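As noted in the main text, all predictions were made from sequence alone. Below is one such record, for Transposase.
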Amino acid sequence: MNWPPGQGTGTPDLASLGWGARAIRTRYPHLALSTIKRTIKMEKLHTENASLPKTGRPRLLTEEERDDIYDVVKHQNPDVTYQELLQRLGGKVQKSTLRAYCREMGLTNRDRD
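Prediction:
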């Protein structure tokens, strides 16, 4: 999109001054009304320049637990089985979840079963 040079959209600033989407559209005719409305809506969600929280399901294993798995498989005992890793985690996850985590970290071994 073509914003005014050096000004960004100016949309949130004008909206905070009480301008409506249509009034902003008359000032910036090259912007679609839907874009202006969406920008104003998103600006209300991002108060104080803070990011929104992550969406989706939280991870089952903490970063420390994933680091521990990585260290065990990569450095301490490359021949460790999934069963041993599951015991190490205290049954916190299923075998399929542990496999997915290992695959995600690049730790693949067909003989681990």
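The two ends are 53 Å apart (CA to CA). The CA atoms of residues 8 and 67 lie 42 Å apart. These features were considered when defining construct boundaries for the mutagenesis experiments described in Section 2.9.
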